[in-house]
Fold:
Amino acid sequence: MRTVEETCRRISGLDRAAMQRAQDRLDMLTKPRGSLGRLEELAVQFAGILKSLPRECKEKVIFTLAADHGVAVEGVSAYPQEVTGQMVLNFLRGGAAINVLARSVGARVVVVDMGVKAAVAPKSRRLCRRRIAAGTANFLQQPAMSRPQAVQAVAAGIDLVQTEVQRQGISVAAIGEMGIGNTTAASAVVAALTGTSPAAVTGSGTGVDKAGLQRKCVVIETALARHAPDARDAFDVLSKVGGFEIGGMAGIILGAAASRIPVVLDGFIAGAAALIACRLAPAARDFLIAAHCSVEPGHVLVLEKLGTRPLLDLQLRLGEGTGAALALPLLDASVRILNEMASFHTAGVSPAK
Amino acid sequence: MRTVEETCRRISGLDRAAMQRAQDRLDMLTKPRGSLGRLEELAVQFAGILKSLPRECKEKVIFTLAADHGVAVEGVSAYPQEVTGQMVLNFLRGGAAINVLARSVGARVVVVDMGVKAAVAPKSRRLCRRRIAAGTANFLQQPAMSRPQAVQAVAAGIDLVQTEVQRQGISVAAIGEMGIGNTTAASAVVAALTGTSPAAVTGSGTGVDKAGLQRKCVVIETALARHAPDARDAFDVLSKVGGFEIGGMAGIILGAAASRIPVVLDGFIAGAAALIACRLAPAARDFLIAAHCSVEPGHVLVLEKLGTRPLLDLQLRLGEGTGAALALPLLDASVRILNEMASFHTAGVSPAK
Structure:
């Protein structure tokens, strides 16, 4: 718990002076003021995070966290539980969507086992092992994990950031996940933290049918009534209805914010993790960039609560960090605009009348 | 006129069989069906355009067309007219936003003088010279150009595509523009072609003030009443209230469609050009990809009429092709997904229950 508390204490908001310098620079460049819209906002936010003008955005790291969910036995997913471990192997071999998109945008993928049921790829050196347990418990029956496990999951995320910072550095972190059943956990977390009815924030995930969607809602409603998680206590919510990868992603956000690194959120489940992180350290919000709005109905609410607006409108519902990967070129572009464009003065272009 | 007519006749719709093959391939890959949303749609559209599965998207060409507008003397822009030529020099030196973003996404920029008032950079080899005249006439007083000039502008665009196809090839074309006063021309074109009131499709462009916006609306209303362009006749509309770069962009769309190359549209002005192209050859619509929705109020209507939906939500209003440039990595990503992802079978991942 000390790691988490100390990390949260190190998080402070954006540096307004650096943001002003970035804005002043943008306003000198050969374009109408503000005409690059949210690309300019990204550059200004990045400056506020770094406390200086960003020079490059080279080290793009996508953390893809995998874990299993005991609640999967309730038939809340279109896929069998063994798919989580199979997909981890696919990540390690480079054949999944996140691998393809990471290559496409020049990012590296850090694959993390936060608690896949069947331990996978025992010999792979490329797998980060942060297993909290062999999947969570079925939260319809009992809390998904103990409170110490919830703290441990968040601390593991913090440690993942520190390890990568020391290894190769991180210009920007992106977070995504894999875990059969994890939209059920994310919906429960979001409903609990925001006091919203489960039906309003629960969708068909990777494609469960109508009956499955109804089961999902009933499972979440029953679990919330049974465990009565305390919305003010992020660890209570995470332990009762969360998941190890959700805790891990919350930890990555906290670790990145403490190290003044921007974090690009993928979809709904990463959003649930962001709500947990911001409950632990509200200033972490300033470090978040929402990549896209997924088709999960609860995602709109999550983005609203986080005060962020998505950059892409692509109707994604895959996870793994795929949406976050697709948004990384925009952050790159914003930094290049700040550094490479000519000013009205140097280019000899007349300013506005 | 023969060039334009022949080009239009060569344009046919998407190849449904190739689209089905792309969809079948996507459905075998290790992801829930359809979960990559509009990225999958892009891959399928691309297959329909190519009549085969796209293998790569390497040759990205951004055409940035510049021209001046006689109507600028009516005080419809926040910038003086000489900025058009100054910005062309900036494009050639690589200091403008479009140069920076093109480098960022691995595209090349083809800078075209379609009719800048003061002839620029007489010695530059990198400038494509397709000058129709030294700017259009002030369409408040007289038609912007003659009908033969309108045809010549569209034919120039067709020729630009052919030249680039022969030189280095084009996997995807993107179109953008530079021309002080050209949101006024674009608003007039859109109002005329769609039968919408000018007030509903006219915005503040690069940042004209409230009085300037009102002047813009009055200028457009007066010009449309005076010239009464025939909405069914694209060349009549283009010649009476259009611009050389608008005609050129329409030609690029037609030329690209005839060569079965997808075209990424930038903002409102490129959208006006697309409406002209689709009036000349309705099947050209299938080749269009809308990059973003700009803050110009008429852009929503244009995208609706074109039946396209923007990929990015970035509040851009710069032009030059900047929004189109930012969307190119998404097309790249869609092609890579089709080619590089593992299938359920090869990865040993269990399919949906």
Q: What stands out?
A: The longest strand of chain A covers residues 60-67. The domain at 4-55+337-347 of chain A is CATH 1.10.1610.10 (5,6-Dimethylbenzimidazole Phosphoribosyltransferase; Chain: A; domain 1). Chain A has a mean pLDDT of 96.
